[in-house]
Amino acid sequence: MNVLEDNMGWLNLVLIVTPPLLLFGIGYLIRFRKMYWLISGYNTMSAAKKQKVDTEKLGVLMGNMCFIMGTLMFTGIMLIVLGQAAIGFIVMSGLVPVIIYILIAAQKYDGNNFDETGKMKTSTKFAIGAILAGLLVILSFVSYMVIQGFQPSAVTFDQTTLTISGSYGQSISLQDIQSLELLEQLPVIELRTNGSAIGERLRGHFRLRDVGQVMLYLKVGVPPYIVIKTAAQPIYLNLETAEQTQDLYNQIDTAWRGAQ
Question: Model pTM?
Answer without folding.
Answer: 0.67
